[in-house]
Amino acid sequence: MKEEKIRISKPPEERKQEIMDAAMQAFTEKGYEQTTMRDIAAVIGVVPGLCYRYFNSKQELFDSAVSQYVLDYCAPIVQALKRYRGDIDGLLDCVADLFLDRDGKEKYHEFFHQAENKTFHSLLFLSNCDYLFPYVKSFFDSLNENGTAAVADTASFSKFVLYGLFPILNDDELSPERKTELARGYITGLLKL
């Protein structure tokens, strides 16, 4: 006799999150290419059709998980950039504390830091930089406004800082303390503080 699955109704956002988490678990265990929507559904004990109700494809599901990761990862950084507007020392202290507290503990960290997922990690890196760019630019504009810095082109400078720091921050061979030390040194050195 075939075992029937019991249908459990959940709010749409909760179900969507459950599917994204299941997908990232399956991707971590089997690899992205080898994982099917059926595998993802099996992780949470639902039929594949339920996954398709929320996501048209495995790629759309993955893209949604990346977008959520970026928002979650960047939210406290954005808050710090706004809070310490015009105060480079305050910002660097706050971001260093955030980083030291969270490094390696991010949601989906295991998937993105697997050697075979380098391409996906690069996508995540670019997505983080793209998301943070306007906030970082605004922060450097504020340093110019209060006379703390004299950055001629804050857009280019912001890109240089963002895209230059992320490889250091993602280097698993460096301790979190060393990463923050390097980041602080490079930023203050570039600003000549």
Automatic annotation (TrEMBL):
What residue ranges carry the coiled-coil annotation? none
Q: Which residues bind DNA?
A: 36-55
Does DNA-binding show up as a keyword for this record? yes
One GO MF term on file is: DNA binding
Query: Key word Membrane present in the record?
Result: no
Q: Which domain of life is it from?
A: Bacteria
| HTH tetR-type domain residues | 13-73
Could you list this entry's UniProt keywords, alphabetically sorted.
DNA-binding
What is this protein identified as? TetR family transcriptional regulator
Q: What is the lineage of its organism?
A: Bacteria, Bacillati, Bacillota, Clostridia, Lachnospirales
